[in-house]
Write a structure and sequence with these properties.
With 133 residues, this protein is mainly α. It has a domain of 72 residues: AhpD-like, CATH 1.20.1290.10. It is 65% helix and 0% strand. Helix 3 packs antiparallel against helix 4 and helix 4 crosses helix 6. The longest helix is centred in the N-terminal third of the chain and has 18 residues. The relative contact order is 0.11.
């Protein structure tokens, strides 16, 4: 029987490096070098590390959808979930990924028919804050 190293330490290191690279290329204001330790020494600090591997590496770095399309999907999901704090960040990320302000507004309008008017109103408020309005 051969040993499967696909989930060993090297794989985890590679996924983390890919996640950091992807996050740096997408998230506005993210330092391009250094600062690889994202832990802050406080409760639940590993959640950011989990996100680096499971979200930024395993999802955002996948083939199949471009970053612009992933931003559209992400905005819709966050609106439906009522996740306004995350939505603020992803509005800025969406602009960085090529969406226009008008397209972000259209996602919010469209979500009102599926996620509900209150969720879209909350999303509009979060987007306005993210856009400095």
């Amino acid at each position: 029987m051969t040993e499967d190293n696909s989930s060993g330490p090297n794989q985890s290191t590679n996924l983390r490096a890919l996640g950091l690279e992807t996050m740096r290329s997408i998230v506005p204001g993210m330092p391009q070098t250094g600062g690889d330790d994202l832990r802050d020494g406080r409760f639940g600090e590993d959640l950011v590390e989990i996100g680096v591997i499971n979200v930024w590496s395993a999802l955002w770095a996948r083939d199949g959808l471009g970053r612009r399309e992933r931003s559209l999907v992400t905005l819709g999901i966050l609106i439906a979930l009522g996740a306004e704090d995350e939505l603020k960040s992803h509005v800025r990320i969406a602009l960085n990924n090529g969406l226009t302000r008008e397209e972000v507004a259209e996602v919010i309008y469209h979500a009102s028919g599926y996620a509900g008017f209150p969720r879209s109103m909350a999303a509009r408020k979060a987007a306005r804050e993210a856009l400095g309005e």
